[in-house]
Amino acid sequence: MKIIFLFLFYFISFSVLAQDVNLLLKEADNFERQFKEDDALNKYKQILLVDGNNVKSLVKATELSCSAGERLLNKNDKRIYFESALAFSDRAIAADSINADAFYAKSLACNKMIAIETENKKVNTFIRDSKLNADKALKLNSNHAKANFMEGKWHYEMITLNWAKRFAVKTFYGGLPEADLDKAIIYFEKCRTNDPYFVLNGLMLAKAYKLNNRPAQTIEILKRVVKMPVRTFDDNALKAEAQKLLQDLE
Q: Which of 20, 86, 211, 248 has a 20 to 30 A CA-CA distance from 118?
């Protein structure tokens, strides 16, 4: 009798917990749709207090920490957000080691750390880890739009990386993995196939075509980007950048 009571108690508790988490997830999603990123991030953190292994919340917390940190001007403030993103992504992988979203999140967090890290050895580690985790995500799901984006971004940024940082990594830590602009374009295009309204991917694809001296493709993609719907807090600014680039080219 006692065993049955305990079973019913845990079953009911689990059901209530699941309902609470689902409600909080809906609230967080609504905040994102309203472009209230800080509120959404706080809601995902609230979910993690209830369910610390909720992979969706860990991935979303990673993404929102990265986007919020990117907009900050102070480098130390950026570091706080990016290191938090890194911690969230590590927890996501620990919670589910065969989840493509988790590895994409780790790739994203590592990519953000590259820009603020000053120690060359750590820069090299983040560069390699960003690529490695994007690779892992695509092995689990080759059509993962954002993992394809991270692969393309990695190739593009390795070609355009700050020369001093690039020289330091190349000289003292065994060199950079091979980067290829054509591969960047292939990955960006695959991301576009799987998520045609991903504004940042469209802008990066246009920049890759521009760097590759393909003006017709550059203009075509930019025209599409400026007409894309606004889905994230940053999309308006990204579309404005695309519009300015398009005006400069026409």
A: 211
Letter for the amino acid at 245?
L
pLDDT for 14-73, tens place per residue?
Answer: 444 556 899 999 999 999 999 999 999 999 999 999 999 999 999 999 999 999 999 999
Alpha-helical regions (H) of the chain: 2-33, 37-50, 55-70, 75-95, 100-116, 120-140, 145-160, 163-172, 181-194, 199-211, 215-226, 235-249
For the entire predicted model, the pTM comes to: 0.89
Torsion of CA 223, 29, 87, 117, to 10 degrees: 30
H or E stretch covering 178: none
Length of the chain, please? 250
How far, rounded to the nearest angstrom, does the alpha carbon of residue 44 sit from its chain's CA centroid? 16
Distance of CA 3 to the CA centre of its chain: 46
CA distance 226 to 208: 17
Retrieve residue 177's tokens: 């993995």
Sign of CA dihedral 102, 60, 113, 205: positive
Backbone angles phi, psi at 180, to 5 degrees: -145, 125
For 189-198, the pLDDT digits (tens) are 999 999 999 9
DSSP string over 43-97: HHHHHHHH-TT-HHHHHHHHHHHHHHHHT-S-HHHHHHHHHHHHHHHHHHHHH-T
Residue 237 one-letter amino acid: A
**Cβ contacts of residue 73 below 8 Å, gap of 6+?**
none
